[in-house]
Amino acid sequence: MMPTHQGSFRLFRFNGIDVHVHWSWFLVAVYSVSQRVPNYEAPVWALGEYLLLFAVVTLHEFGHALACRQVGGSADRIVLWPLGGVAYVAPPQRPGATLWSIAAGPLVNVVLLPVIIGAGWACRRAGLLDDNPDFARFLRALVWMDVSLLVFNLLPVYPLDGGQILRSLLWYPLGRARSLQVATVLGVIGGAGLVALAIWWASVWTGILAVFLLMQSWGSFRAAGELRRLEKLPRRPEFKCPECHVSPPRGEFWMCPSCRQPFDPFATSAVCPHCRAALDVTACPDCQTARPHRSW
Length: 296
Fold this sequence. Notes:
- The protein is α+β, with helices and mostly antiparallel strands.
- Helix content is 54%, strand content 13%.
- The protein has three domains: 1-154, no CATH class; 168-232; 239-296, no CATH class.
- The longest helix has 31 residues, at 95-125.
- It starts with 7 loop residues before the first strand and ends with a strand.
């Protein structure tokens, strides 16, 4: 399961985006800081290292969220938890919009790298590192941290950024459903590889991450199957979704909000044949966007 705001609290709000931190993050923070303390003469540097990791992950997720908004999508929440961060983004269901929303996260790490290296170079030129070996170790750790996050996120394993970028690129020649199927199959293979790596390394943390990736890939693979079945349904060419411009399928795929009975609003002028309730908003089965029925 993806993390939700349940079990977390809102840390701050910026530009209409709420940043939540899951309670378990603090347990992992205590463990991680304790593991890094021996690397420094002053333990406060280990704490600063983890706080900078928190900041880098947060900036990464804001890259996703702000890019999604730039292409007309919605993004209003970020959740930080022990396995990283998740920006809840809903870009328009177009390959280009999805590609930019995902690629903007790793691009933040690319931009940060020369900033960190430049800061280290400036500090060295100013002589600040000569008498402060902890500061030098701290800067090296920041570089390693940013590079590690960048490389790991670009692995072509769904749902990591690299896997989602691959899916967006495959969307152009293969279509929405088949591209997701291919990306998630590679995700399952990559997750299985991480399981083997976790066993080899005897790493519980890697094993937890691998299981998470496997679960997400398998769930998305099943969703891709549903998308393929949806794509094969007969359509109503006289209507178009105002968001993705795809014609709706023929059939009772919508639920009446009043009597909870399925019906086809495009066959009944958005009036439920069971209870005669009018459907003001119709959701698109393809892009999941709900718009006023009259706008179709």
